[in-house]
Structures are given as structure tokens and as C-alpha cells.
């Protein structure tokens, strides 16, 4: 696997410190209490690291998808400054 853009959707909102730790990801809150993360993943090891980090923080994973440049626009959401969970 080479560098590819991925969309990761999790349940809930993320704290500002967690959003900062996800450097390189666009993070936005979407409908139904979900958070949408879009970012470039360099290899499978990095993808697994991100997913394991979310798991270790007991953040519920909803979906993980490879995206094409045309489809990587984040859904209409809200700025993450109002985040509440770690």
C-alpha cells in the first residue's frame, strides 16, 4: 500500500488535544454525533497505528474508507473547537 487518503468516522466528538495529535487530518463533527477524519496515510503501518490509537482511547470506530481526491471533501459539519471527549 502506498500513500492514500482515508476517511475515518468515529462516534462522538474529540477533545482539542486529541484533534491536535491527529496532525495532518482534517477533523469535523458531522450529523448524529459522529466525527469525520480525513487524512493522508503513508502506509499500512501508519493506518494500523491510527486505528489502534483510537481503540486504545475507547473511541468507537464507525467506518474506514479509502477516498479518491474528488470524494475527500468533508461533509458539512462543525468546527471541532467545541469538543468534549478524549
Whole-number count of domains: 1
**N→C terminal distance:** 30 Å
| Shape descriptor | globular
Q: What is the residue-averaged pLDDT?
A: 84
**Number of discrete helical segments:** 2
Task: Return the structural class.
Answer: alpha+beta
Give me the strand/helix succession.
EHEEHE
CATH topology call: Alpha-Beta Plaits
The CATH architecture designation is 2-Layer Sandwich
- Order of strands, main sheet, comes to 2-3-1-4
Q: How much helicity do the residues have?
A: 10-25%
Give me a quick take on this structure:
With about 90 residues, the chain is of the alpha+beta class. About 20% of the residues lie in helices and about 35% in strands. The chain has a single domain (about 5-70), classed as Alpha-Beta Plaits (2-Layer Sandwich).
What's the arrangement of secondary structure elements?
Layout: E1 4-11, H1 16-21, E2 25-30, E3 34-41, H2 44-56, E4 61-67
Antiparallel strand pairs: 1-3, 1-4, 2-3
What features would you describe in this structure?
22% of the residues lie in helices and 34% in strands. It is an alpha+beta fold and 86 residues long. The chain has one domain (4-71): Alpha-Beta Plaits (2-Layer Sandwich), CATH 3.30.70. Strand 2 (25-30) and strand 3 (34-41) form a beta hairpin. The relative contact order is 0.35.
Which features characterize this protein?
86 residues, alpha+beta, globular, disordered C terminus, Alpha-Beta Plaits, 2 helices
Amino acid at each position: 500500500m502506498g500513500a492514500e487518503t482515508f476517511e475515518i468516522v468515529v462516534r462522538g466528538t474529540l477533545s482539542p488535544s486529541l484533534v491536535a495529535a491527529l496532525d495532518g487530518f482534517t477533523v469535523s463533527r458531522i450529523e448524529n454525533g459522529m466525527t469525520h477524519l480525513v487524512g493522508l496515510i503513508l502506509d499500512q503501518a501508519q493506518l494500523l497505528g491510527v486505528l489502534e490509537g483510537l481503540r486504545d482511547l475507547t473511541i468507537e470506530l464507525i467506518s474506514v474508507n479509502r477516498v479518491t481526491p474528488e470524494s475527500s471533501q468533508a461533509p458539512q459539519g462543525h468546527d471541532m473547537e467545541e469538543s468534549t471527549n478524549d
